[in-house]
Amino acid sequence: MFTKALVPLDGTEVSEGIIPFVTQFARGLDIGVVLATAVELDPLREGLLNRIAGGLTETPAADALRERIERDVKNRLEDLADRMALEGIAAETSVRFGPVSDSVIAMAQDAGCDLIAMSTRGRGVVSSGLLGSVTYKIMHESPIPVLAITPERAGERWDTDYGVRQVIVPLDGSELAEAALPYAAAIAGRMNMKMTLVRALSIDNIAYSEGYNLGNMLNEAEAEIEADARRYLISQARRLREEGLDVQTEILRGSASSEIVAQSRQTDHNMIALATHGRSGVNRLLMGSVAEAVVRASGDPVLVVRPSTAVTPDPAPSNAPVVAT
Fold first, then answer.
1. For residues 221 and 155, which has the higher predicted lDDT (pLDDT)?
2. Are residues 186 and 300 in the same domain?
3. 44 shares its domain with 154
4. Listing from the earlier edge strand, what are the strands of the sheet with 32-39?
5. I want to staple 291 with a disulfide (CB 3.0 to 4.6 A). Which of 7, 230, 243, 276 is the partner?
6. Using CA of residue 268, residue 293, residue 34, residue 187, what is the dihedral sign?
7. Within this chain, do residues 175 and 88 fall inside the same structural domain, yes or no?
8. Which of 103, 30, 31, 39 is nearest to 67 (CA)?
């Protein structure tokens, strides 16, 4: 089970818009958080500071400026931590200089975090690039699960009785996709959520010569594929129900990413949990591209797990009370 989450922030209200959801999530799972900022100075400013520092032997201007930036950032993080403390959340703070994605992962590991919860977008003056692009890089490289949250949706729920009520888990029949199941089950059990296991089916068009009508064959093949998919989902659901979870299944027809997004939009108060292979570029596999597309389009919080580093969380009680903020 999760015990502590690192929450990267870039000093903007946009990135801090996820705090309401993080607070609700942390309270529901009874975990602590580490509010963190990675400070990456742009090359021009870094070069100027180095030249200034090179001409001084005592109290270099560059070091003094770094200390000032760190102090200002730390003060902002501690203000947020104090607000979370009023909500009963134990929050630490952390600041590190260096490339943002590498620094975020390093801070998470140093603090003993087993989850990174971060905004899908934001731009801060202390960061050289969009937090959104950093989010997608961390999704593919982090050795621990990443919870990507759309700040606008999280901000809407600051003063409401919002609570995540359902976790949607896309599966494709592979062990890779199943890596997200233990995490989703642990969250659902602890926070009294319903689980919905979905599988998207998209049968490729088959070319055939004029005079050969393969319609019946295609219909039979499609029916067999759907039956296999349904049996697979039922078997996964049965195992989870034995753990005391409320589980339903759904067969989707069409492109995986678009159908998963459409499914999430049918109801409010969802989160999505899925696995990604952790690669990027030309070596990207299907589930990885699906994960990225779902994060971009769904608007719901999305938990992304890398199978190569996934562990089996301790089972959580399924009779925990619903937590709302």
1. 221
2. yes
3. yes
4. 91-97, 32-39, 4-8, 115-119, 146-149, 302-305, 270-275, 166-170, 194-201, 246-253
5. 276
6. positive
7. no
8. 39
